Amino acid sequence: MSDTHGLSQSTASVIDVWIKKFPEGKARSAVLAGLKAAQDENGGHLTNEIMENIAAYIGLPAIEVFEVASFYDMCEFKPIGRYKLSVCTNVSCMLCGSHAIVDHLEKRLGVKMGETTQDGMFTLRDVECLAACINAPMLQVNDRELYEKLTPESVDVLLDRLIAEAKSGE
Amino acid sequence: MIDIQINGQTYQVLEGASIIEAADEHGIYIPRFCYHKKLSVAANCRMCLVEVANMKKPMPACSTPVSPDMVIFTQSEKALEAQRSVMEFLLINHPLDCPVCDQGGACELQDLSIGFGCSESDFGGDKRAVDKLELGPLLQTYMTRCIQCTRCIRFSRELGGLSELGMIDRGGGEKVSTYVERDLQSELSGNMIDVCPVGALTAKPSRFAGRSWEYVEHEGVAAHDCLGSNMYWHSSQHDNVETREVMRVVPKENESINECWISDRDRFSFEGLTHESRLLSPMVKHNGTWKEASWEAALSECADKLGSLIDSNGGDCLGVLAGPQTTMEEGFLLQKLTRALGSKHIDSRLREQDFSDQACRLPSPRLGCQIADLDSLDTLFFFGCDVRTQHPVLTTRINPSIEEGLSVCAMNPMDYAYTFPLTEQVVAGPSALLQQLAALVALVAKEKGESAVISAEKPSAQTQAIAKRLLNSEKIALLMGEHALASTHASAFRSLLSQLATLVGASFGELPYGANTVGLQYVGCVPHRQADGMALAEPGLDIVGMMEQPRRAYVLCQLEPESDVLQAAKTLKTLDEAALVICLTAFESDAMRQYADIMLPVAPPSETSGQFMNIEGSIQSFQAVTVPHGDARPAWKVLRVLANFLKLDHFEYRSLEAVRNDLSVVCESEDSVCELPILKTLPSLKENELIRLAPWPMVRSDALVRRASSLQKTLRAEQVSALVNAAVASTHGLSDGSQVKARQGDSEIEITLRVDDRIPDQCVMIPSGLSISAGFGSAEQAVTLEKSNA
Are residues B506 and B567 in the same domain? Predict the structure, then answer.
């Protein structure tokens, strides 16, 4: 496939890799990997155009990509902060004090759950169990790194580090 | 076959069937929402839970296969309790708005909640609401009523072949949507209304017009394509036939033709019946002014004028054309009248222009196989056929067959937007298409060890691939479509295709346009055969000949030449110059007021009884649903009385049955021997000409559908523009969106140009049947394009 249908070469090659992992004729299995790659590349969110491009590249009707994207919480459809903090508020984390973590985050960042800070640095999300109950409470940064056994202090350390990282990156 | 027990009774059922299939087979009702016999099993509504002995939990009947000696209870306390609970869950979010819901009275949810629900709910929370969804001019949505059975989604994917709807979001927020708001593109979208078990999808054109229980159902035959899909007309005011109106159309099941689907054209064309251009009384033109007349006056004027023209010029001065909604009885009377008046010039093949092989063709076109055979083919080969827009219901058989291993090959004059994938395809302009078809035949003949009958150019890679596919398939059908039939090379195409069919052992058939084109040819509405199918030693003039050698008088039955024939410009000019043009028509038009001298209002399909013959050759009869509007009369009565006025013998028909009796006697002696001439050399091909492809969009195919207002709104920009590919556009100095002048002879129109690379070189697609292209030029012939100065 030389025509990438508007996708970047790197996203297209991620899709190519995933198509190869599945039996022939099951190319749709690469949709989720394609969405993730394209979302990362686009600064954290998907647009209709990107999803249609993925559909065209894989050879699916666009609606079948929309179905997958809208099913998964990790897919974002509006611009979000540089760091997405997904705080688990499910049973184990709640029993181990996720309320305090949520309160602290909301106070420190000045936004409510689901919102993005004015400077575009952080987006807060409350999510369901991310399978790290043994070290509850926990949060996840940008759908990748887990931070466990959280306290308000360790959250501050994490936030300071992310802010510093963002600044040095600029 | 295995034995199972349902509710204490033992039944023999097919091994591998699901419980619900087995129960349906024996007339035992199990409630269901998501299960539909023509769709894949989703098992997501859980309404069909039944008790199975030795199973702890109730089982979904739609997805549980039967096993030997299975003991099933569909009415036990456990089963009923499970069904009641499911019903309660389904009703949690369903609004109780049946009194204002169009589905009320015909709603599966309503019925089942009466049969299986309970009157109270334990649910105390807020009901959810779903945003409205705009799907275009045909489907009205009210998505809060949706119970997520996914029947519409499965229909659109599995049978419609276009995945347009999907289930987005999840859990409690799950909803059926297009996600990005866009109108449905499917030609079969109306079937989603039928499969929807609730009032989430209803028909926009017939919305709030009446209640299902007020309607009465009349069996009918779809009047827009040659498949003869079965359907029901639903009419209001059933106790008073005088004020009865057609309110809507729904499909009628016929496993061998349309299963349970109809096209949007068949479903929504009824709107045209009440169009303002309906001709409601006979009209006569005197000195250029139209005046209403009584039937008596109009018919005696017809008889006088026609009689005196024939007296002074002989019967030969009369030409007669019949449109495809003319019934077999009407066609029979029309040709009888024509021949009784001494004319041989009658034709009903409005969209053909190459008649050189007519003597060798079947008396009427045939599919070459049964429609249901399309389900079990290995390879289907379309030649010049846009099956999706011309015969949409056929695609409900092709789309699912692709999954079963059917491969479809095509040779087309443009890359049609089929709803199914093509294994191999050749796209080329008419001349190149002929070259490649000849090359295909030569190649296949060579592979089969037969001596090559035709010398051809080198086959293209795709042609070779098609040859390979045909040579390696067992069950093959070749179908010649509307483009190929309309082409100036039609006889060459037909000869080559029939040779090809013989070589590979395939069936070969045609897919002409129109509901009764087949029946009209069968009853002798052609210049070369009589009603009994016997060939005439000296054939009369065909439709092209009638315009090239103008007649003094014309009778046109149920057609609008400006929009219905291939050589529209020439036809209009000839009619304008004729001394007398009598139109038997349900609708009038400005053009008709120009060329006609007498207009007689006749009944469209819902207002007349009659018979259509479909492409399989089966004759289907139907009854009038309503009385004709205004002073209109069924055309068979008009023709009979006209013949009486002309003092012709043997036209004393008292009833339609009497016509039908005569018709069945003469048609019995049909001989169906058909030996097409073998093409030895290709016709001379002109190069460097721009050829006009002129397909009729689905919603512009005949006078009735052209007046169906909701269907007209589905026309997309590319269907009302001239299309060329980028190369042709640049050689002509044209760009996308520019206005162009298209010219054929003296005929000229201005139209918006769009660049579309589905069109091959040396071709421009200018649709026929549009108001903008009415009366323009000739289809499938050379055209010039230039930039418009305006």
Answer: no
Reported as a pLDDT band with limits 50, 70 and 90, residue A1 is very low
* A66 vs B contacts (CB less than 8 Å): 166, 168, 179-180
- Do B556 and B642 lie in a common domain? yes
Q: Which of B443, B478, B510 marks a domain boundary?
A: B510
Number of domains chain B contains: 4
Q: pLDDT tens, B658-673?
A: 999 988 877 665 555 5
- Do B584 and B615 lie in a common domain? yes
Are B169 and A63 inside 8 Å of each other by CB?
no
Burial of B217 (0-12, 13-18, 19+ CB in 10 A): middle
CB contact under 8 A, B169 and A70: yes
- Residue B148: CB atoms within 10 Å: 18
**Mean pLDDT in residue range B346-371:** 93
- Residues of chain A with Cβ-Cβ distance to B168 below 8 Å are 66-67, 70-71
CB contact under 8 A, B179 and A70: yes
Q: Tell me the per-residue pLDDT of B159-176, one tens digit each, with 9 for 90 and over.
A: 999 999 999 999 888 999
- Split at pLDDT 50, 70, 90, the class of B39 is very high
Tell whether B527 and B601 lie within a shared domain.
Answer: yes
Q: Does residue A67 belong to the interface with chain B, where contact is any CB pair within 8 Å?
A: yes
Question: In angstroms, rounded to a whole number, what is the distance separating the alpha carbons of residues B144 and A30?
Answer: 32
State the average pLDDT over residues B575-582: 96
Residues in A closer than 8 angstroms to B164, CB to CB, are: 61, 63
CA-based nearest distance A96→chain B, Å: 27
* Chain B interface includes A63 (CB < 8 A): yes
Residue-wise burial string across B331-351, b where 16 or more C-beta atoms lie within 10 A, e elsewhere: bbbbbbbbbbbebbbbbbbbb
Cα diameter, chain A: 52
Residues of A in contact with B180 (CB under 8 A): 48, 52, 62, 66
Nearest to A51 by CA among A63, A41, A43: A63
User: Do residues B127 and B95 lie in contact, with contact meaning Cβ atoms separated by under 8 Å?
Assistant: yes
Would you place residue A2 in the very low, low, confident or very high pLDDT band (cuts 50, 70, 90)?
low
| B534 and B651, same domain (yes or no) | yes
User: What are the respective helix, strand and coil percentages of chain A, to the nearest 5?
Assistant: 50, 10, 40
- Check B168 against A64: CB less than 8 A apart: no
Residue B311 lies in a domain: yes
Could you tell me which chain B residue has the CA closest to the CA of A47?
B180
Q: Which of A48, A52, A66 sits opposite B166 (nearest CB)?
A: A66
Which value, to the nearest 10 degrees, does the dihedral of the CA atoms of residues B656, B657, B661, B666 take? 20
Which domains are assigned to chain A?
9-71 (1.10.10), 83-169 (3.40.30.10)
Q: How far is CA B40 from CA B20, B163, B377, B443, in A?
A: 13, 15, 21, 41
Helices (H), B237-277: 264-268
Confidence of residue B496 (pLDDT cuts 50, 70, 90): very high
* Three-class DSSP category at B510: strand
pLDDT beyond 90 at B527: yes
Between A and B, how many CB-CB pairs are < 8 A? 32
**Do you find a cis peptide bond into B205, omega within 30 degrees of 0?**
no
Supply the pLDDT for residue B132.
87
| pLDDT exceeds 90 at position B590 | yes
- As a whole number of angstroms, the distance between CA B697 and CA B389 comes to 7
CA nearest to B171 within chain A: A71
Give chain A positions within 8 Å (CB) of B169: 70-71
Residue A24 neighbours by CB under 8 Å, 6+ apart: none
What confidence score (pLDDT) does residue B671 get? 54
In a domain, B252, yes or no: yes
Using a CB–CB cut-off of 8 Å, the residues of B that contact A are: 162-170, 178-180
| Cβ-Cβ contacts under 8 Å for B56 (sequence gap 6 or more) | none
